[in-house]
Specification:
CATH class of the largest domain: Mainly Alpha
Number of domains: 2
Strand content: under 5%
Number of strands: 0
Subcellular location: Membrane
Pfam families: COX3
Keywords: Membrane, Mitochondrion, Translocase, Transmembrane, Transmembrane helix
CATH topology of the largest domain: Four Helix Bundle (Hemerythrin (Met), subunit A)
Structural class: mainly alpha
Membrane topology: Multi-pass membrane protein
Organism: Aleurodicus dugesii (Giant whitefly)
CATH architecture of the largest domain: Up-down Bundle
């Protein structure tokens, strides 16, 4: 059926309301995790992944097989992804604002010092520097894979893509190891709260970006992309570079300057 416009009017979909309810359950289950009750977290996380898969399946079907994504629609999708990344950027700016407010003028309850008395500083030349190298290298490899795809060099494309995924996963493991080795927790003054909020939310975005890249990798393995339309891959690269930039600010201000 032909339309008299270039835009895609989406069909009715159950996924937005189901995703909203699943994210609500995921947030409530994270509260239960504080009391070491993990079942509902993994249960809710599984449903979030399931809805992600089915929602993206419908979007892929519309763009790749039904031809609903015209050039005008692709342009609006790019603007939508850009606005999403900007909103995520301001999300982190709010927590950096909190960090600078507390660290530049520490109260007397903190001993007028930052970090507060009793909390050992983290050596930024140790695990944080190693994690920085892993994440920046991962960003380099995903850019290399995109360049290889542009030149139709599929061997280098898959090689660099796999290295990107390995380094991204290794970054997450090293971050968990750092949490295990720290001598302070979330409740140790505002310093502990700010530290775990900033690094924890960044780690959450790393997980989201990793699954975004992994999903597109399996799409490439199944020949599920068109050389005329691989916006999903481009968007995953944009998001991964956003995660890189946020980590650079975390390393510079939270680990190096803030310690």
């Amino acid at each position: 059926m032909m339309n008299n416009h270039y835009f895609h009017l989406v069909d009715y979909s159950p996924w937005p309301i189901l995703m909203s309810l699943s994210l609500l359950n995921l947030g409530m289950s994270m509260i239960l995790m504080i009391n070491f009750f993990f079942f509902f977290f993994f249960f809710s996380f599984f449903f979030v992944l399931l809805i992600f898969y089915q929602w993206w399946r419908d979007v892929i079907r519309e763009g790749l097989y039904l031809g609903c994504h015209s050039n005008a629609v692709k342009l609006n999708l790019k603007f939508g992804m850009l606005m999403f990344i900007i909103s995520e950027l301001f999300f982190f700016i709010s927590f950096f604002w909190l960090f600078f407010y507390l660290s530049l003028n520490p109260s007397i309850e903190l001993g007028n010092s930052w970090p507060p008395f009793g909390i050992s500083s983290i050596n930024y030349m140790d695990i944080p520097l190693l994690n920085t190298l892993f994440l920046l290298s991962s960003g380099f490899y995903i850019t290399w894979s995109h360049y290889s795809l542009m030149n139709l060099n599929m061997m280098e494309f898959y090689f660099s893509y796999i290295f990107c995924l390995i380094l991204g996963f290794y970054f997450f493991l090293i971050q968990m190891y750092e949490y295990y080795m720290l001598n302070f927790c979330f409740n140790d003054s505002v310093f502990g709260s700010v530290f775990y909020i900033l690094t924890g939310f960044h780690g959450l975005h790393v997980i989201i970006g990793f699954f975004f890249l992994l999903f597109n990798f399996f799409r490439f393995l199944n020949m599920n992309f068109s050389f005329l339309n691989y916006l999903g891959f481009d968007f995953s690269i944009w998001y991964w570079h956003f995660v890189d930039v946020v980590w650079l600010f975390l390393f510079l201000f939270l680990y190096w300057w803030g310690m």
